[in-house]
Structures are given as structure tokens and as C-alpha cells.
Amino acid sequence: MKITQTKFAELGNQDIYEYTLVNDQGITVSCITYGCIITKVVTPDRHGTYQNVVLGFDNLEDYLNHSPYFGAVVGRVAGRIKGAQFELDGVTYPLVQNNNGNHLHGGTVGFDAVVWEARMIETENEIGVEFFYMSPDGEGGYPGNLDMKVTYTLNNHNEFLISYNGVCDQKTLLNVTNHTYFNLSGDTERDILDHKLQLKSEQYLELTDELLPTGEFVNVDGTVFDFREGRAIRDGFISDHPQNLLAGRGYDHPFFLNANQDEEIILWDEKSGRKLTVETDECGVVLYTGNHLEGNFSVRGTKSRNYLGLCLETQGLPDSIHHPHFPSCVLDKNEEYRSVTKYIFATL
């Protein structure tokens, strides 16, 4: 295994570095200190052809101007917070409005839009990068000085792990995820509509037309939201289910997981033979199928279009601060936030 560090870009007076992790099987993960963005993941298909299976850019300017959170760590709170405000112990905290009057993914200067400190890790069994960032009191509107650490590691079992750790000097909210867009066809040869997904989930969250949870858990039985036996993403695209239509013909929904660290999320592409298994200790995963990716920019030579990639955002349930029956994202003063998600790359 090996890890290398190169200069990726400059932002103001700060250097942005890219780290590339390569294991003994040739699996490669590249990431940068801006937003902890995962820029590339290179894996083999069933014939041994290595290609990039995530969406990203080759330069910082495109990340600054065009990126729909490609590969980034998002927070302090992933997803939308209704009305861009919340109440904690009788105090109302107004947040940055960046999504139709709501607050999305930590606001305009969330974890995805700052430069992190980094340190390389090399042990006998894994290689990786530790990222560090101190989010000051009031950033985005959130209370407390928050010390965050995000750790990316790769091992020779073709496992890539993301670990999140955070401690704050005030009671606050914290719910972090990674926003990588996967396309297992390799180098965006095809869109993701014919990818198949299996989820150990019996319920999803109903959304309003603002893509905020209504608070209702809906049983997946008999719907295109039932991924328990595996189904094509295309089913949501062709569906006339009102929830698929309001998401822009597809999915942008939180699923409540009824298993953890037990192959609860499996994505595969039959044509290439690539398979991704995701295991997490989080209670949910947001499936976003790239329904709004069309734009006037290119992704490494491919004009961006809808369904070019999909996200599997392992996290607590969105807007939980306004739904007391959801698992809480409140972090007490000096309590440690911890979360781990593992990505296992294989072939069929």
C-alpha cells in the first residue's frame, strides 16, 4: 500500500493538497483538503479494467463554481432544516438560508466549503488521511466551537472507511455525512438508471414539496421504495408515485435502516460487474439519484446530466430537530460525536 501527497490548488493564501491512497489490489482513493472532497475512486470491473466510479472535477475552480457537493463532507447538519432555524433549551438559533428559505447541508460555508488541516496515516494494515477543522461558534448560525475530525482509511480488503468525530464546547446540533456520487459503470460510460440497489429498510420518510420530512414513516410494501430484494433505480424514474414525481422523477428520500454493519446497503452494476457494499452505524441513508444534475458544466469530459451519479448519504434523519420522534441530532456540551461508514468494493 502507498499514499502520496501533491499540491492540488491554491485558495487565497492557502494551499489545497490532494492525497492518493492505493492498496495492493490497485484500488485507488483520492481526496483533497478542500471540503474533504473525495475526487476519485478507481476500481476494477469484472474483466480487471480499472476506472473511476465517482463524480468529480480535475480542478478547484469547478468545485467552487459548479459542484453539487461532489464527494464532500457536509455539515454541521446534513440535509434540510425547516425554516432555517431551530430551538434549543428555549433559545432560537437562526441559520443561513440557502434553500428556498430553508437551511441545507450546513449553509453557504459548511464543512464542504472550508479548507481542512490534514495528516497522513500509514500502518501495517491501512493507509489514510486524518482531516481536522474547528468550526467557530456561530458558523452557519450554530452554537459552540466544534472540533471536527474526519478520517479516511483504505486497507487491503478493499474496504474504505470514513470515521467522523466531533466535540463542541456548547450544546449544539451535529449530523454529518459524505456526499459522494457513485457511477459504477466507470468513467461515466452510462447513467445510473440501470444500477440496482438493495436496502435493508422497511420504511422511508415521506417528503413535502420542499423535500422536507413530513414526519411520517411510510411502509415500503408494494411500492417502488421497496429495495429489500433489490430493484433497478430506473423503477423510480418511470414511476408515477407522487413521492417520485416531487423529487424530480427519482429518489431524494431518507430510508430508515433496520440493520447496521450487516451488508445493509448494496449497489451494483450488472454490465460492468462492479459492486459496492455500504455498512454504517447510522440509523438512515438518503438515496439521491441525481435527478437535478443537469447543468452547464462537464464532469471530466462528460456533460453533466440528470442521473449521472447517485448518492448514498448515511446519516441521522434530516430535520430531526423538528420531529421529536426521530432519533436526535442534539450533541451535548463536551459529548463526543462518533460515526463510521464502510465502503467495500468488489465484483459480481
UniProtKB/TrEMBL annotation:
Residues passing through the membrane, by range: none
EC class: isomerase
Reactions the enzyme catalyzes: alpha-D-glucose = beta-D-glucose
EC number: 5.1.3.3
Keywords: Carbohydrate metabolism, Isomerase
Pathway assignment: Carbohydrate metabolism; hexose metabolism
Protein name: Aldose 1-epimerase
Source organism per UniProt: Ectobacillus funiculus
